[in-house]
Write a structure and sequence with these properties.
406 residues, alpha+beta, six-stranded antiparallel beta sheet, 34% strand, globular
Length: 406
């Protein structure tokens, strides 16, 4: 049913026992900006129990407008003479003033920066000119900081998200109607699996999209795990389907630190000799978007001495039909070979470390006596661009910091 900041916060708090929940709410109220209070309330959606995370500004909750499903539309305005608005610098100062760990502050500021970047792209203005409504801003800041604080308490090794339901139609915000998903939400969900669903309304807000895209490093069906706790967070509105976001916390289950997939995946292969390099690259992107686990090409020689390309695609049974449709839609092949395969993968963990250049993720793979680690390319690329250095120099800088800490 999509995602919003309050739903995520409520679901994550629900993972803890009642005593710890009260302790968390007390802590969040202690760090909240002036005039902001939070509470965890028991509720139901379509007969299913869930918790609701209430954020009030000066004793009142932000009002829903139009058909918003969660009431957390992330608004911007660029005429500070009409209403009181808040800049990114003021938001950063507000987060810095909170009594929370530095890494939580860093996460919150990076997420808000993503929101500002999305709003900048949506409205065609520089990030420096993006301003946020004061009330909506405090509401969103509290949601974001609360989720970052909770993720720091839980400290999961791996975070998976299901494909994101966005909703459809239009939603009324402070400055008129916008399509659903909102432009900022579309921006934040780029390159992630998302779908409209069958209920009209805003299922995923920009704040929810920013949080989910920041913390989840993969989007897929629930992986093999032994569940230790479950949490449910309710959205503001009620629908014919339960408006609830669910979270599960558990331990991965893998024999000898590996995960074996027996006849659960399929490999497709086919040859083409009439596609350009651009067409091949585009087709690969669309195959991944359709759910392929792996797509790669190999240059080959074909009949009549023609140079050609061999496509190899690995896909789970659940995504088989979608990938087959994409194969015939985006490539020129008229047939494909299908092979049932078994696959063994090493167990993968991702750790996030804080450096002088911002947070950096480290992927560690382990199994059968082998262990290797690798710095996340996207983080190294960001550091290289921000500091006008090469990727190799960025890698040396971060490796030097890590060894220095040791």
């Amino acid at each position: 049913m999509g995602a919003a900041g309050d739903m995520l916060a409520a679901a994550l708090i629900s993972l803890f026992d009642e005593d710890k929940q009260r302790e968390i709410i007390d802590k969040l109220n202690a760090i909240a900006p002036e005039g902001v209070t939070v509470a965890l309330e028991s509720t139901t959606r379509q007969g299913l129990a869930a918790n609701y995370f209430s954020v009030k500004i000066n004793g009142e909750e932000e009002l829903d407008v139009g058909n918003e499903s969660h009431g957390h539309e992330f608004n911007t305005h660029h005429d500070p003479h009409k209403h009181h608005h808040t800049s990114m610098a003021e938001i950063t100062d507000m987060i810095d003033a909170m009594d929370i760990p530095e890494n939580v502050k860093e996460d919150a500021k990076l997420i808000y920066a993503r929101l500002a970047e999305a709003e900048s792209a949506a409205h065609g203005v520089p990030v420096s000119e993006v301003h946020f409504h004061e009330v909506g801003m405090k509401d969103a800041v509290m949601d974001i900081v609360s989720v970052c604080f909770l993720m720091d308490l839980i400290r999961p090794d791996e975070v998976y998200g299901s494909p994101v339901c966005t909703g459809f139609g239009s939603v009324k915000c402070a400055h008129g109607y916008v399509s659903v998903p909102a432009p900022a939400t579309k921006y934040l969900l780029m390159n992630l699996p998302a779908y409209a669903g069958n209920i009209e309304g805003e299922m995923t807000t920009p704040t929810g999209a920013a949080l989910v895209s920041y913390f989840a490093f993969d989007f897929r069906e629930m992986p093999l795990m032994a569940t230790k706790a479950v949490g449910s967070g309710a959205g503001k509105k009620d629908f014919p389907k339960a408006n609830i976001l669910n979270v599960s916390l558990g331990d991965s289950v893998a024999e000898n630190s590996l995960i074996r997939s027996e006849s659960d995946e399929t490999e497709f292969q086919f040859n083409v000799d009439d596609m350009t390099g651009e067409e091949i690259g585009f087709a690969m992107d669309r195959l991944f978007a359709a759910g392929a686990l792996e797509v790669y090409t190999t240059p080959i020689g074909m009949k009549k001495s023609r140079p050609g390309t061999l496509f190899t695609i690995i896909v789970s049974k659940e995504k088989r039909e979608a990938v087959i449709k994409a194969i015939f839609k985006y490539t020129t092949t008229i047939g494909t070979r299908e092979i049932a395969i078994d696959r063994v993968t090493m167990r993968r963990e991702i750790e996030k470390i804080n450096t002088d250049f911002g947070p950096v993720r480290i992927k560690t793979s382990e199994g059968y006596g082998t262990k290797r680690s690798k710095l996340e390319y996207d983080d190294l690329s960001r550091i290289a661009i921000e500091n006008n250095i090469s990727l190799r120099d960025a890698t040396k800088l971060i490796n030097g910091e890590i060894k220095g800490d040791e």
